[in-house]
Amino acid sequence: MSSLAQTFDSDAVKHPLLRIQDVSKAFIVSDRRVQALSHVDLDVEQGEFVSIVGASGCGKSTLLRLILGLDTDYEGAIRLEGRRIERPGLDRSIVFQEHRLLPWLTVEANVGAALRQIKGSGAEKRARVEAQLHLVGLQSFAKAYPAQLSGGMAQRVAIARALVTNPKFLLLDEPLGALDALTRLRLQDELLRIVRNRGATAILVTHDVDEAVYLGDRIVIMSPHPGRIASVLPVPKEMSRDRSDPAFLRLRDDVLTRLGVNKAAAVYDRLLEIPNEQRVH
Prior knowledge:
The protein has helices spanning 3-12, 60-68, 107-112, 122-135, 151-163, 181-198, 209-215, 246-258, 261-273; strands at residues 18-29, 32-44, 49-54, 75-80, 83-84, 92-95, 169-173, 201-205, 218-223, 228-234. The protein is of the alpha/beta class. Strand 4 (75-80) and strand 5 form a beta hairpin.
């Protein structure tokens, strides 16, 4: 084979880290077929942080379950590094909205529980747990129990637990949704720092458009009934992470408009301008 042919052949087998191809998923609910996802296509490159936004019921969390390998009954294909995902694996970890820590275990034991299927000595595993707790800033709380932690601290433990197995993919299903507004803003910075520090690839599902724009390299907008990708917006690399930056606000408003939020607000504003006696009741 010529060197040119070898080069072409080598290029031909390159894949994105994750490839979702023509994926459709249906459920049977009360003897009725409900189409949750319809012909979803998405590639995710190594090191990307992809935010997925959309109304409730558009299939965001269902898509994460398929990527995680918890459900293989679907049409199409989901491939990680070119190999079809057929079951859960240590190369993928997930953080849910609830931290799901075991209350009878300490912080370090909760993180270490994720290493039960990992080969290695006790000392090696303790070192990995210690490194992750240091990464999330909780090394001094290693002996604490979940009940002794704030909500934000508990979520940081959950993130440490997800990262301790060195996954290729970090899946985030509304991980900050249950937190108060100030803690959520702080943890967005923490999450961005942690993911960048690890060079991880992440997919975030969120209802918070500001959060999606702040954290994402790309924003995937899904529409419901059935769930499908309506558009994908890149976040400009030069755009400031300052939420008051005009470029940030323009992109956020673009996402809101595509979700129909700004359109609804504009209609409401026009209604307010109509005298009450002229409105249709």
